[in-house]
Write a structure and sequence with these properties.
heterodimer; A: mainly beta; seven-stranded mixed beta sheet; B: mainly beta; six-stranded mixed beta sheet; five-stranded antiparallel beta sheet
């Protein structure tokens, strides 16, 4: 009954490879996000989709491309992986945007630890 | 430039002690949230505060939003090992006509039995 599930949990790959991370939510939320958490645990937003429409696209290399086939899914594809892409990537969803009304915030997945070697 | 600075960055205390974590900014936020993240998991929402001066309690946790809505604190009474985790504040502000949602720098708490 996982609310936000992302796969894989761990991903180890070589520089230059292309990889994808999948995310699905069963909460009926309209908005989904991708966040990157660096080694210092700082969370930075990358993308956000509302009903399959891109609404937030922060300064992220264009090697990163999100895709939302429907409002329950938001996948992240990364081309030509670099060492600096190593991090934990979190998918999240929210009922409202911004997700800051009382008692309503983000629901996060458990993260994908990407290691580029 | 980090808009939401948390202090302390790391905190290791004994079970039963009290502690306070601070979340400070020079900007005004329309609301502020606190999350707790355990190892290998995503952050989980604890509370949202929206009014300046607001105080909310969640069992042994007390959250306060500053009167000017620029800062917040989290106080834990009689900490337990289960409180161990990364505590993140996060705020929403309106900037250039769009909403910005920003996470703080985080406080890693370890409560020793």
């Amino acid at each position: 009954d996982t609310a936000v599930s992302q796969t894989p949990k761990y991903l180890v790959t070589q520089m230059g490879n292309d990889k994808s991370i999948k995310c699905e939510q069963n909460l009926g939320h309209d908005t989904m996000y991708w966040y990157k958490q660096d080694s210092k645990k700082f969370l930075k937003i990358m993308f956000s989709y509302n009903n399959k429409e891109l609404i937030i696209n922060e300064t992220v290399p264009n090697r990163f491309s999100p895709k939302s086939p429907d409002k329950a899914h938001l996948n992240l594809h990364i081309n030509s992986l670099e060492l600096g892409d190593s991090a934990v990537y979190f998918c999240a969803s929210s009922q409202y945007f911004p997700p800051a009304q009382t008692d309503y915030g983000y629901t996060f997945g458990s993260g994908t630890r990407l290691t580029v070697v | 430039t980090q808009l939401l600075e948390q202090s302390p960055q790391f905190l290791s205390i004994q079970e039963g002690e009290n502690l306070t974590v601070y979340c400070n900014s020079s900007s005004v936020f329309s609301s502020l949230q606190w999350y707790r993240q355990e190892p290998g998991e995503g952050p989980v929402l604890l509370v949202t505060v929206v009014t300046g001066g607001e105080v909310k309690k969640l069992k042994r946790l007390t959250f306060q939003f500053g009167d000017a809505r620029k800062d917040s604190s989290l106080h834990i009474t009689a900490a337990q090992p289960g409180d161990t985790g990364l505590y993140l504040c996060a705020g929403v502000k309106l900037a250039s006509g769009t909403y910005k949602y920003i996470f703080g720098t985080g406080t890693r708490l370890k409560v020793l039995a």
